[in-house]
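User: For my dataset I need records formatted as: sequence, then structure tokens, nothing else. Please produce one.
Assistant:
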Amino acid sequence: MPTKLAWQCWVAIFEVPLCIFEIADVFEGGSIFTVGKVCCHAFIDLTDDCKIEVFQHAKFFPVVEKFCSILVADAATAANATAAAAGDRALLPPGSA
């Protein structure tokens, strides 16, 4: 029986439409590229306790975590570049203008 923490963690993933299927596809040997940006944000935003509770024995976990970290970072970099090109300094982190 899953713990209360495990249920709370899964709820965070289930709140993103199709995210659980994207992660399950990787678990079943599918392509990491099926995990989308929104799902990656949900995955990255899980607390460390959640990640340990739910994914501690999942061999795919480090791969998904690294992929999502890169995807989320690339999305932030792209958003900042777009904001800078548009002259919108409010979206840029302090000191980058």
